[in-house]
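Structure (tokenized):
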């Protein structure tokens, strides 16, 4: 028995993957990439890698500090609250949930 594969229309595709085209899901795109992080005096603190995941619905952060510490976060836009959420955890077991938004050209979070 063969199965016929149904082609998705653009409308079906947009419904199946809403984050791809939702403008708010791209507000944090400036953060995507690999970053060398330093303090205000230029002293290296670590490296951070930010990638897009789950069809654009998630930004995933991977942090490695110069001391060998590591952590990760999952960041997503929640349409119901019109807020960004970041759930952060690290190798010491700390878990923090931040909530924020793009305001006045800057992404602002609070715990």
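Design, position by position:
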């Amino acid at each position: 028995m063969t199965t016929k594969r149904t082609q998705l229309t653009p409308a079906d595709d947009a419904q199946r993957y809403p984050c791809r085209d939702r403008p708010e899901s791209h507000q944090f795109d400036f953060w995507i990439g690999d970053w060398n992080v330093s303090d205000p005096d230029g002293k290296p603190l670590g490296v951070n890698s930010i990638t897009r995941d789950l069809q654009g619905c998630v930004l995933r952060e991977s942090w490695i500090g110069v001391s060998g510490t590591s952590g990760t976060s999952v960041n997503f836009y929640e349409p119901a609250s019109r807020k960004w959420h970041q759930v952060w955890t690290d190798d010491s077991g700390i878990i923090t949930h931040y909530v924020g938004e793009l305001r006045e050209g800057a992404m602002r979070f609070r715990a």
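Reviewer-requested clarification: Residues 30-110 form one domain. Residues 10 and 16 are 10 Å apart (CA to CA).
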